[in-house]
Design brief:
CATH architecture of the domain at 63-152: 2-Layer Sandwich
Low-confidence stretches: none
Number of helices: 6
Number of strands: 6
GO molecular function: low-density lipoprotein particle receptor binding
Region (Disordered): 21-45, 141-188
CATH class of the domain at 63-152: Alpha Beta
Biased composition (Basic and acidic residues): 146-188
Shape: elongated
Distance between the termini: 78 Å
Strand content: 15-25%
GO biological process, one term: protein folding
Order of helices and strands: HHEHEEHEEEHH
CATH superfamily of the domain at 63-152: ACT domain
Mean pLDDT: 77
GO cellular component, one term: endoplasmic reticulum
Helix content: 40-55%
């Protein structure tokens, strides 16, 4: 057994050992664990509507942190974007939604939600705002009231991803056609 020492004579190593002994048998509540160590919430499959893929996403994102990008229409300055998104955040706060807001450009902001299960309700609120151009949530772009008429198309995937995919396919096709060594290998 270790020698009994007066607490006033403890050094940093002794204090660290004492802390480890206390924490060894300490039960940490699930709510205090970091998000990646928490067990996933059980999914009630009876609430899932097979016709609506959003219902599956709502249930799988419940209790997890989620971020959505919001674009302000027009050509606002960063200060205007700050003011407009602050009003939206205030409206969401009054409706009891815990949302944090980060400005990432002159017309763009990130809304971070502690519980991703409410993301689609918040998205519906945002796209009904006059100055909202679009909301990007889980790779889907939802046009808002402030979107240009040519941009209003129901629920499109990010155009950058589709464009990159097409460019990569064109590049790989042109490489196959132009690469002489590849043609010789095919003939062999």
């Amino acid at each position: 057994p270790p020698k009994k020492k007066d607490i006033r004579d403890y050094n940093d190593a002794d204090m660290a050992r004492l802390l480890e002994q206390w924490e060894k048998d300490d039960d940490i509540e699930e709510g205090d664990l970091p998000e990646h160590k928490r067990p996933p919430a059980p999914i009630d499959f009876s609430k899932i509507d097979p016709g609506k893929p959003e219902s599956i996403l709502k249930l799988t994102k419940k209790g997890k942190t989620l971020m959505m990008f919001v674009t302000v229409s027009g050509n606002p300055t960063e200060k205007e974007t700050e003011e407009i998104t602050s009003l939206w955040q205030g409206g969401l706060f009054n409706a009891n939604y815990d949302v944090q807001r980060f400005i990432v450009g002159s017309n763009r902001a990130i809304f971070m939600l502690r519980d991703g299960g409410y993301a689609w309700e918040i998205k519906d609120f945002l796209i009904n705002q006059e100055r909202c151009a679009d909301v990007t949530l889980e790779g889907q772009v939802y046009p808002g009231k402030g979107a240009d008429e040519n941009e209003k198309g129901k629920n499109k995937t990010k155009p950058e991803k589709a464009k990159k995919k097409k460019d990569a396919e064109k590049k790989s096709d042109s490489i196959k056609e132009d690469n002489r060594a590849t043609k010789q290998r095919e003939e062999l």
